[in-house]
Amino acid sequence: MDREADYLGRYRSISNKLKKRFLKKPNVAEGSEQFGLLAKAFQHEECPQYAAFCCLAQARCEHTLANAAGEAQSLTVAARSFITAEFSNQDLGCASFEEHLGAAISCYGHAIRVHTENKQTALAATLCIELGNTLKRLKRPDQAVGYFQKAAQLQYQSPLACLSAMKEVSSCKLDTKDYEGALSVLTEMTFIAQDKGTVNGKALGAYSEVLATCEVSRVLLLMLLQPSPQKMRPEHAETLEKYAWQSTEDNTPDFLTDDLFLLLQSLVLACHSKDIDSLRKLQVDLWSLLTAEQNQLIHLIIQDFSR
Q: What is the 3-state composition of the chain as percent helix, strand, coil, each rounded to the nearest 5?
């Protein structure tokens, strides 16, 4: 930071101009603009935490002016600045109480509330997803899951956007080893995709990919959890029935390739017979057909049966 520049003095000067005086109304719009310029100066000096405080002051000015859009924008910039400061502290290995992260979460929450109150659910959902992704980068999936869930709720009228947010919820639950929770979310995603994206039982467009991902992950989670028949939900039992070798009907879903379906069938059989060697061979065959999360689930299944 430039030592000759009196940034603190500028902040105090702007704040003093906004104080109420007898028979004199403060120029709040001018104060908001000046706080914005000071925030940019702090950003230029690579002091994001100070820039964030200026943005918070600007947000208060916009709130006074009843400019909800300007208030939400200033809060969002403040949140992102605090996040930048948090990552900078972590990169430098600085000891902290993660106060920048706490301030960022508070700013995001306030901005989300402002957007929600003004019926701007798409913008509110976007900020929820942005905060969720940031928390995942900071290895906090347990905190991120709540924001992805809120994003899904806000986007319930946009099925694909809702499903995308729910996919992040399931990923966070897998990261926190909440396998039953992940299975429940994936099952709910399947119901939504079938309801919104199928015609005469045939999946359409992007819904086909969603159904395929959910189907494979659900089968793998069921093999990992190994629920007893008495405790298994009817929809889960119905899913596993499709992969039973005893079935004489062609149960291949239209959203899965024949090769993938047969490999999953073999996987289910190997799990039921606890054939570790076959599972290891199937892991190799399935590796290129699955996502990283799904391959990790197969690894956990083999690890569990090897004990």
A: 75, 0, 25
Which residue type occupies 153? Q
Closest C-alpha to 68, from 29, 27, 115: 115
Q: Residue 146 in contact with residue 134, Cβ under 8 Å?
A: no
The CB-based long-range contact list for 280-288 (8 Å cut-off, 24+ gap) reads 286/260
Instruction: Write 198-202 long-range contacts (CB < 8 A, 24+).
Output: 201/254, 202/254
Give the span between the Cα atoms of 203 and 206, in whole angstroms: 8
Quick one: angle between helices 258-273 and 292-305, nearest 10?
A: 20
* Residue 32 CB contacts under 8 Å (≥ 6 apart), including other chains: 58, 61, 62, 65, 70
Gyration radius from the chain CA atoms: 26
Q: Under DSSP, is residue 97 helix (H, G, I), strand (E, B) or coil?
A: coil
Alpha carbon 293 to its chain's center = 15
114: part of which helix (H) or strand (E)?
A: helix 99-117
> Mind listing the pLDDT tens digit for each residue in 205-263?
899 999 999 999 999 999 999 998 888 899 999 988 888 765 545 667 889 999 999 99
> Rounded to an integer, what distance in angstroms lies between the CA atom of residue 132 and that of residue 148?
6
Q: Structure pTM?
A: 0.92
State the pLDDT at residue 2.
Answer: 56
| Total number of residues shown for the chain | 307
